[in-house]
Amino acid sequence: MAEAEQGPLLSPLAESSRDGAGSELPPAMERRAEPGEEAAAAAEEEEEDDDEAPPASPPFFLLYPGHGGAAAPSGVWRPPAPRGGAALPVLLLSYPGPDGAGGTDSHPNYLMANERMNLMNMAKLSIKGLIESALNLGRTLDSDYAPLQQFFVVMEHCLKHGLKAKKTFLGQNKSFWGPLELVEKLVPEAAEITASVKDLPGLKTPVGRGRAWLRLALMQKKLSEYMKALINRKDLLSEFYEPNALMMEEEGAIIAGLLVGLNVIDANFCMKGEDLDSQVGVIDFSMYLKDGNSTKGSEGDGQITAILDQKNYVEELNRHLSATVNNLQAKVDALEKSNTKLTEELAVANNRIITLQEEMERVKEESSYILESSRKVTKDRTADGHALTEARKQLKEETQLRLDVEKELEAQIGMRQEMELAMKMLEKDVCEKQDALVALRQQLDDLRALKHELSFKLQSSDMGVKQKSELNSRLEEKTNQMAATIKQLEQRLRQAEKDRQLAQQDNRLFKQEFGDKINSLQLEVEELSRQRSHLELELKRERDRWSHSHQRSQDNKKGTKNWLRQDGKLRIQEENAKLKQPLREENSVLPHKSSCQDLKTPRSASSARKKAAGAKKRISARTAVAPSVKPVQ
Q: 367-379 in b/e burial notation, b at 16+ Cβ within 10 A?
């Protein structure tokens, strides 16, 4: 098709504003549709379509701008001739200007505006078709369902619109997976989807990961929440999209609001066997074209059953919404009671703060001469005043919030079709009020703590004043004593100065009288020092000589002693050998003699003993004489 070859310029279609025949979301997108509202809108459309004749043309018409495309003023546009039935969606096409260039000289951004409008309208058509088919088929859709596949193709075109190209080694690459990865940082619940997409084994390209992410978000029924969180952060999206991209303009917020209606659909996908990398994202416009010659007779029964099912579903939704409204009303009453209690507590706190301020002023008047303590007290008082003003501001904000909640409740009672969105807003407001109540209670606790701190500081300041007064009295006594001692020291200093002057005069006189004697004595002292040094040198020399001679004598003594000891030992050994020889001979002869000769043996034994004793005496005498021998010097 020609539209598929032109890219996203002519690819998406959508519904524009209706005259009142069919229920449709407001074009300014003051509120975002919810699942119940989409179902109710679809039911009303079906009822009105039963009463009216089917259109004799496709469910959209081509709008050719007179000059400049969508950027041109609306008065220049040339709409088609009016027809019977409901208003048709609009597909904007660029119309060549006088120069044949499509009017780009006067309105350079008309192409981007046309593409945004077409994508928004196509998203409306695809979402509406999905909701209607889900109501007819029991709200459960599979991945093989053609309108569901076309919805993902439309979302892919919306995310690719105005996408900046990233330069790589292989060239420029455009992928919408980068912006979808940011959702994990904005909404922590999306981390599970991102992790599961990265763990899928069959995905190899960023485009396949982005398609898998969209399918998992729809299964989780949080696609609208993720898109809202992403569109609200324009500062992060500016890194990936051009300034005129769909995600950066109002059309992106409108599409995010339309996605809320898909929360009523239960989608089942099998990611393992599906090839998401090689799919071709081309929109099939034949699904949104209707036969103008067909009548409603063949589909009358099916439409009646669908309308009845939708009515039953809307009634159930209304029952649930009424119950939620009652619960929210009870919560609002409880919040009003808590607000009254808080106002009373704040009044009591204000009275306490006033009394504390009066006490602070008294303390300031009494301890004005102490600069440091007064500064601390004034700082604390100003801090309390700021805290008081902040508490009053927060109280005013709470009262204003309470009035806003009451207005919202009155509006919700009159609008049952928008009740689910109002319920969510009220729940958010209740959470905020609870947080504010907790903050106010915390501020009351802080004020009480500040009161205790101020009382403690007042007591400590009184004690400090007393201590400082005592210190001042002690310091005054010490200053008086120091003044007396200073006077005495000054008198002593004067006396010492006089004595010094007298000593200087005496020194001058002494130098004048004994100057010559002092010089002569200095010369004598120098001469004596020279003699002393000469004598010290001679004394050192004599000491060295004496030490050398003494060392030699000691060495000679040791040598003679060793020689005498060795000589004496040799002689004693020779004599012992001589004495032992006859004894051995006698001992060898004695066993062979008879018993009769035993009478003669005492004499020989006694004589031998005497000889041995004499030899021992001689040896002992020699050993005693040997150490006493002195070496010859």
A: beebeebbeebee
Give the SS3 label for residue 281: coil
Q: How many residues does the chain have?
A: 633
pLDDT digits (tens, 9 = 90+) for 269-299: 877 767 787 777 777 776 766 544 444 555 6
* CB 385, CB 378: distance < 8 Å: no
With a pLDDT cut of 70, the percent of the chain lying above it is 64
For domain 2-292, the CATH architecture is Up-down Bundle (1.20)
Is residue 274 within 8 A of residue 139, CB to CB? The reply is no
- pLDDT interval class at 106 (50, 70, 90): very low
In sequence order, the 6+-apart residues with CB closer than 8 A to the CB of 137 are none
Cα torsion 92, 97, 103, 106: sign: negative
For tokens 């690819």, what's the residue? 11
Cβ atoms 147, 129 nearer than 8 A: yes
Q: What share of the chain is helix, strand, coil (3-state, %, to 5)?
A: 75, 5, 25
Question: Helix (H, G, I), strand (E, B), or coil: what is residue 450?
Answer: helix
Question: Rounded distance, CA 529 to CA 539, Å?
Answer: 15
Note the pLDDT tens digit of each residue in 601-633: 445 556 656 666 766 666 666 555 444 444 433
Burial class (CB in 10 A: 0-12, 13-18, 19+), 586: middle
Cα 128 from Cα 261, distance rounded (Å): 9
Q: Which of 533, 348, 519 is nearest to 444 (CA)?
A: 348
Rg (CA), the chain: 60
